[in-house]
Amino acid sequence: PEPWTPERVAEWNAYYDLYVTLGVLLLAFVASANKITHSSIWPQLQVGRMIVEKAAPVVTDPFSYTAEGRRWVNIPWLFEASHAMLHRAASGLAPTDPTDPAASATRADQFGAGVLVALNALARVATVLVVLGIRRRGPGLWWAAVCATVALGVVFSPVGWISGGIATPARVEPETWGQLLLALELVALHRTINLGRRGAALALIPLFLLWANLDDSFVAGLIVLAAAVAGLGLTRSRCDDAGAPSLPAGLAVWTACAVACLANPSSYRVYPAALEPIAQLFRPSAGAPTYDQLSYFGKSIWGDELGKGLGGYLVAYYLLFVGLGVGSFALNRRHFSPSRFLMFAAAAVLWGALIRFNAAFAVVFAATVTLNGQEWYHDRFGTRGRLGRGWALWSIGGRAVTILLVFTLSATILTGWGQSFGEVTFGFGYDPDDFAFEAADYLKSAPIRGRVLNTTMLQGDSLIWRAWPERKTFIDSRQHLFPPEVLRRLQETRIALKDDAVGRWKPLLETYQISAVMIQEAGASNTYRMLSRSPSWIPFYDDGDIVMFGRADAPAADLAYFKANRLEPEELAYRRSKPAPPTERPPSPTTWMDQIFRRRALARPQPHTRAARRWLEGPNPDAPLWPDPARCLLAIREARAALARRPDDTRAYRLLSVAYRNLMAEEAALQAGLKLTPETAAQVRRLRPRAGQLMTRFRQRATALNYAIQTTPPPRSRLDRRALFDLNDELSQLYLSVNFVDLARDRIGAMLDLLMPGDVPNEDRDRLRSSQARLDGQVTQVRQRMDELRDESQAGPMQRASFAVSQGMPGLAIQELEEALQTGIAPGAVKPRLFDLDCDTGQPEKALELISGSNIDDPALGSEPGAAALRQGRVYFLLGNAEYAAILWEKHAIPRLRFDRSFQALGAALALVRGEAQTATSTVLTIPNKTNAEALWEIDLALCRLEGGTPGLAAEPFTDALKLVPNLSARPIIAYYLEKLGKQVPPALPAEDTSALKDQAPKDQNPENREPKE
User: Fewest beta carbons less than 10 Å away: which of 47, 245, 574, 838?
Assistant: First the structure.
């Protein structure tokens, strides 16, 4: 082998440094490729579209009604135009589906946004690359990579690990490009001052010309440049090249750069606009400061609203990095550079004055500490490789640890490990639920003639992107536009609305002819509760995120619209048609992968779940009422709307289980002869429904609980474990109520697996173990008996499955039938029975697999008339596709059964005419069962229509059910809903006539059973 020389050591260190650099670049990309969560990008893209269409910058406000036509200093117009063009071009590359233009438009928008995120991440990577280039020749790339990681990769702070380092996560906004230009400025200054290449300073002039049209941070760049120039007038440093420019030359370059910044459509106005945040520091505070106004030197950081009670830690965080920078100058005092120090000091002061300048400080910090550390090392140890075991351990081991750490940090960002709810997440595109797009789409077509007050900037940005030009904003996130008077009026209006002070809010709203207001309940819960109870306001829209209220004194046309769309439970549930969107697919259960990839646990609830929760809680969450059926139906529709957008939302399934539990109890109360009034609420709660008479509700509740359990992320706290424990407990009790012993045992086992020491008292744990052992013994006995039937009596799968069901073991029956179906044993008999058991036990996703590739009249799903369509409709109903389920029942299942019943009646009459009395009698005896079955199918169809948001189509099947069997045991339930629908209830048979036509209290709705349940 070749001898180990200093030259070879340097070569190998440089080789390892490449891997370190690649790791840091990967970390920078991963930390910067975050889904869009800031709303300011939407007005920027909309402005960019206008610039491209007009081929000229936009210098007046076209989007708001509070600053309409006002002069707008729109500094980053190049950013807006370029990103709008890129977004449009990328959107055009997305695949389209002519049969679903809405989905194609959404897909194209996501694709365009994803490309913008990728470009933004590449800009941050380019910034890191440029920063890595600010160093001397010789060893130092490893140290530069470490500094770049802290500045632009990942850093630990008082609020935890921060992706993006000191600069914080990169967002798709002009500031990311401002960071890149600042890094290029530092490169030019490094080459000019430290390397003596005077010509490099001339590159600053076109750089600032571009910068002043891309981002407001050009002012920070000018301040840093002024600090560097000021340093030229001080004593020359040993590290400064002899060819460095003089102070007059530096001033000339600075002046040329400052003049170049005037080449903006707003000309000289760019300076007052860009300096506005700094100027605010010297003015009296007006209202609560925003995050952009937060300062390490101010009082606001010590408050709980913005500082989150971490003021002392945040100031210590600031002082730590400023101290590290100053310490690097002390370490490198032999090569102290006044220009470099003044640049660092200027950046530190800017960051301390306004936290928003953290990105500028990060870039300056990385460049400064890199140069100081490298120069100190070169001065102390030279540039040649060092020999010896200690140096080998330091250089090789240190680099290996750095590579391992960098890739570990990248992995944690990719998986979401260690992140908290609400933090930015890796990904491309955006989540529509983060914005008020649904409300904006509604307002775009709503016939509201008056203006709408948006109470947050996010709402305004969403309106600009989705509802402009039909709707304009009161306020939005655009900078350098809205005067302080508009912000003051907005604050006054919000306070007046929170207090419902008519005398204060009415003049403010009249000024702009505002008829309605948008309230974000999550951030203004007091305002929401106050307006909900106020006679001066009419709630007319709620998508879970945004609630809209119309003025009760609005102009006649608007007032009529508000009243017609008032959020009144019974009106919405029983009289207005709003079809619920279908769920795309069954939920994807959590797996061991969710222990590593925590995206599901970090996802925010789909907004419609909040609307569902509000319907269940009632108008006053502090004193919730027992929700009546109307509120339960509305909660179900909202939960289904949430699942249509996010099929794996566990909160939606939990709300569904609550709504179905309440409905089941209320319908059982109706059957028991109770009236649903506030006075009987306590009785309804105490009532134990008989699942055999409410099998549809049982299936729905079991399905909702089963899916809520499946979609719950792996619990990481005692509270999470308790919530999952309660779900399993409720499902086990539900199974025991119908004697599903083996399934209840499985849920109890899951409960025990969840428990950790201290979660429950020991006696409760022992009770669970005792119950599990008792049920397990029953399951073992039935399994042994099934084996005996197979070995001794040669019983087939159907017989063994029937025996298991009769003994309360549907789980064993399902296993038996699945094995039989896989081996091809009697599929015509096995498949329908397996299908029914899957639905009855709350597992419709398994039943869905059985109908894959089947047609509507597939005989494998049942040979009786309408059986196949009935079963398919049932599984779609349980999965949330109410419209398709209703079509299957209304157009296929019920007509086929009705035709068969009529045909049999006609056949019996013909047989009687021919003198075949026995045949006629046998045929006539089957008709009541079919009549009962048809009545029960009609009830399911009506319930499907109610839940699916088409109540106008529910009255007819309810009425038909009572016409078929007037004295159904479900008659009180049907009568209740018909009365709510405003329809007449068909009369019941007199008591003396019921003996001839008696409700047989069916046990099941499956067509092959002679006594189906209701």
Answer: 245
Cα→Cα distances 426→2, 151, 164, 414, 597, Å = 46, 19, 12, 6, 11
The reply to whether 99 falls in a domain is no
Distance of CA 831 to the CA centre of its chain: 38
DSSP secondary-structure letter at 63? S
pLDDT at 1013: 35
Q: What value, to the nearest 5°, has the Cα angle with vertex 396 and ends 330 and 5? A: 95
Through-space distance between the first and last CA atoms of the chain, rounded to whole angstroms: 87
Q: Which string of DSSP letters, residue by residue, matches 188-203?
A: HHIIIIIS--GGGGGG
Q: Give CA 94 to chain center in angstroms.
A: 23
Identify the residue whose tokens are 């760049």: 221
Backbone conformation region of residue 1001, classed left if phi is above 0, alpha if psi is from -120 to 50, else beta: left
User: CA-CA distance, 937 to 935, in Å (whole number)?
Assistant: 5
Which tokens hold the place of 146? Answer: 């470490």
CA 548 to CA 967: how far, in whole Å?
45
Residues 892 and 924 grouped into a single domain:
yes
pLDDT tens for each residue of 401-438: 999 999 999 999 988 887 777 778 899 999 999 999 99
Q: What is the DSSP letter of 267?
A: G
Label the pairing between strands 160-163 and 451-454: unpaired
- Alpha-carbon span 24 to 14, nearest angstrom: 15
Instruction: Sort 125 into a burial class: Cβ within 10 Å, 0-12 / 13-18 / 19+.
Output: buried
Last residue of a domain, one of 386, 415, 444: 415
Residue 555 in tokens = 């102009």
Based on the fold, state whether residues 444 and 342 are members of the same structural domain. no
pLDDT higher than 80, residue 235: no
What is the number of structural domains in the chain?
5
Q: Are residues 770 and 665 part of one domain?
A: no
**How far is Cα 323 from Cα 97, in angstroms, rounded to an integer?**
58
Q: How many CB atoms lie within 10 A of CB 638?
A: 29
Phi, psi of 429 (to 5 degrees): 90, -145
| Sheet strands side by side (includes 537-542) | 451-454, 514-520, 546-551, 537-542
Q: Are residues 707 and 615 in the same domain?
A: yes
- Assess if residue 289 is contained within a domain: no
Tokens of 368: 């400064």
Distance CA 375, CA 372 (A): 5
Evaluate the CA torsion angle 174, 175, 178, 183 in order and state its sign: negative
What six digits make up the tokens of 111? 């694709």
Report pLDDT digits (tens) over 59-88. 999 999 999 999 999 999 999 999 999 999
Structure token digits, residue 743: 């399934």
Q: Is residue 93 part of a domain?
A: no
Please name every residue paired with 1003 in a beta bridge, in sequence order, or none if there are none. Answer: 1012
Please tell me whether residues 27 and 132 are part of one structural domain: yes
> 3-state class of 160 per DSSP?
strand
CA 13 to chain centre: 46
Preceding peptide of 469 cis, ω within 30°: yes
- As a whole number of angstroms, the distance between CA 695 and CA 701 comes to 10
pTM metric for this prediction: 0.89
Q: How many CB atoms lie within 10 A of CB 250?
A: 24
pLDDT of residue 291: 66
Residues 377, 248, single domain; the answer is yes
List Cβ neighbours of 72 (8 Å cut-off, separation of 6 or more).
58, 59, 60, 61, 478, 480, 481
CB count within 10 Å of CB 348 equals: 23
| Residues 222, 150 share a domain | yes
Q: Across the chain, what does the average pLDDT equal?
A: 89
Domain that residue 342 falls in: 10-32+122-282+294-415
| Distance (Å, whole) CA 343 – CA 40 | 30
8 Å CB contact between 90 and 111: yes
Task: Give, in degrees to the nearest 5, the angle at Cα 783 between 777 and 789.
Answer: 140
> Are 222 and 347 within 8 A, CB to CB?
no
